[in-house]
């Protein structure tokens, strides 16, 4: 779990304080232990000197000497007890029990039994005993025998328990105050500026480059960091604005160039097809001129005249059909309508038929197991009952036309010229129409195939290709909500698969 910075700072400051004061308490405890040892030794000697003067060899105590002792002013209280040994080895007070400093000043909490117990332990061990109640010292007569004990309460008692009781509350208070003070200073000097800086950085990462961190009215490292960050943010904002303007300018220039290139490609395609269109028109014109010359003869039999009139009508109809194909494929105002794909396929085939014948290329139409030669009458009927798509017929026709022209260019540019084959297949697959244009030409090198859809990329000689054919196909298909998949086998051919969504529930109005 990630802790917020301010929580981490508070915990670290508190931990440091605990370590510092804990070390201080350990030192004080050792110091108090040493002081107690020294104090025990001093008071043992002091009390021993007193009883050397007031206790004779018979164990008789001189009470007057005790009361007149000049060192009683070092104590707040004192008890003297004569202790006798029992047969069991234990000791108990007997005879003499003195309060040299009186007992009237004692509180009701004065624990006389515990003090007597401390004296008995000192007598039994033969050594001084220091507790939080005071110091118990064994008393010996001039013969060295234990006579009893003396308990004194020094005016300054430095026991461990007293130290802890006095220092622990101050320890907690000082730790709390130091932690709060340190945190408050850190919050103002470090935490708040860092939090603001992190918030501004997050907003900048989300795209708001105009936001800035409030600059503290100080001259420390954090303030310099904030100022440097704001300066950097201003530079980033300026650079982003310049970059955005340059991108807009470059995008506009690219759009204009692409538009001009698209127009050039359309014009180039029109030029490539001019010969085919002229052939489609000149062929019937030659027959029509011959028929007109024959019809000028007055001796022409009626049945022959009718025959030549039909030839004229057929030629005019063929020219009208050719012109109609050109018009349907020409750029015009966008009109979205229901389109049977058989129509743009037929228009594109009509414009490349002459070139295909010259190159010796056979074009076949396929639907499932059925196929027809493209030039046969009624060949497009294979696709007549397929559902329509919603789009622009001229754009779809141009997409098919570009695929056919690319295939023919590949045959024409092949190192070894041979009769080729182009197959156009169309079928319904679920909610899509699947249109495929496949040839058995030379295909493309694998290194070049990945770049085939790129704008302006071409493998043709300079001045012949524009590199827009497949780009136009992609643009048209994507504009109609479809997708294009290209596949290639070097030396065996090229294939383009186009998937277009079927116009749902509107097939009855398709042209």
Summarize the structure.
The protein is α+β, with helices and mostly antiparallel strands and 511 residues long. The protein has ten helices and 13 strands.
Along the chain, the helix and strand elements come as HHEEHEEEHHHEHEEEHEEHHEE
The dominant shape is rod-shaped
By CATH, the architecture of the domain at 334-509 is named 2-Layer Sandwich
CATH superfamily grouping of the domain at 334-509: Histidine kinase-like ATPase, C-terminal domain
Low-confidence stretches: 454-459, 461-467
* Strand order, largest beta sheet: 8-7-10-11-13-12
Q: What is the CA-atom radius of gyration, in angstroms?
A: 57 Å
* Number of helices, where a helix is a run of at least 4 consecutive DSSP H or I residues: 10
Fraction of residues in helices?
A: 40-55%
The average pLDDT value, as a whole number, equals 78
How would you characterize the largest beta sheet?
6 strands, mixed
Structural class: alpha+beta
| CATH domain class of the domain at 334-509 | Alpha Beta
Q: In CATH terms, what is the fold-level topology of the domain at 334-509? A: Heat Shock Protein 90
Percentage of β-strand residues: 15-25%
CA distance, first residue to last residue: 67 Å
């Amino acid at each position: 779990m990630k802790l917020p910075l301010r929580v981490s700072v508070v915990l670290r400051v508190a931990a440091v304080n605990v370590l510092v004061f804990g070390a201080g308490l350990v030192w004080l405890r050792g110091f108090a232990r040493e002081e107690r040892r020294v104090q025990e030794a001093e008071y043992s000697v002091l009390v021993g000197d007193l009883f050397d003067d007031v206790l004779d060899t018979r164990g008789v105590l001189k009470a007057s000497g005790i009361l007149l002792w000049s060192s009683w002013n070092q104590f707040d209280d004192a008890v003297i007890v004569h202790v006798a040994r029992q047969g069991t080895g234990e000791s108990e007070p007997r005879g003499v029990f003195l309060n040299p400093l009186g007992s009237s000043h004692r509180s009701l909490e004065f624990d006389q039994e515990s003090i007597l117990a401390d004296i008995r332990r000192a007598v039994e061990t033969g050594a001084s005993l220091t507790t939080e109640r005071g110091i118990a010292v064994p008393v010996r007569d001039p013969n060295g025998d234990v006579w009893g004990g003396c308990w004194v309460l020094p005016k300054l008692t430095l026991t461990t328990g007293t130290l802890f009781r006095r220092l622990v509350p101050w320890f907690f208070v000082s730790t709390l105050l130091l932690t709060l003070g340190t945190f408050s200073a850190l919050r103002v000097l470090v935490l708040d500026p860092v939090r603001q800086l992190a918030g501004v950085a997050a907003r900048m990462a989300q795209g708001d480059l105009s936001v800035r961190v409030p600059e503290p009215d100080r001259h420390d490292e954090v303030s310099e960091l904030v100022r440097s960050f704001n300066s950097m943010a201003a530079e980033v904002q300026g650079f982003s604005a310049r970059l955005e303007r340059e991108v807009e300018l470059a995008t506009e220039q690219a759009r204009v160039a692409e538009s001009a290139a698209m127009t050039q490609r359309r014009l180039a395609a029109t030029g490539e097809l001019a010969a085919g269109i002229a052939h489609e028109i000149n062929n019937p014109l030659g027959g029509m001129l011959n028929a007109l010359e024959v019809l000028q003869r007055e001796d022409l039999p009626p049945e022959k005249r009718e025959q030549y009139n039909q030839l004229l009508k057929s030629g005019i109809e063929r020219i009208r059909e050719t012109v109609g194909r050109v018009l349907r494929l020409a750029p015009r105002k966008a009109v979205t309508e229901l389109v049977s794909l058989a129509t743009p396929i037929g228009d594109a085939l009509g414009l490349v038929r002459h070139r295909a014948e010259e190159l010796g290329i056979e074009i076949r139409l396929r639907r499932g197991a059925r196929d027809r030669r493209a030039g046969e009458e009624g060949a497009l009927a294979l696709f007549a009952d397929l559902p329509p798509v919603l789009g622009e017929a001229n754009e779809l026709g141009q997409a098919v036309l570009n695929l056919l022209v690319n295939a023919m260019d590949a045959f024409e540019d092949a190192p070894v010229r041979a009769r080729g084959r182009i197959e156009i297949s169309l079928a319904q697959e679920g909610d899509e129409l699947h249109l495929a244009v496949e040839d058995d030409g030379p295909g493309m090198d694998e290194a070049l195939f990945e770049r085939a859809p790129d704008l302006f990329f071409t493998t043709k000689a300079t001045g012949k290709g524009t590199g827009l054919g497949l780009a136009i196909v992609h643009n048209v298909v994507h504009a109609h909500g479809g997708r294009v998949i290209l596949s290639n086998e070097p030396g065996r051919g090229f294939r383009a698969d186009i998937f277009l969504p079927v116009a749902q529930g509107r097939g009855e109005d398709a042209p």
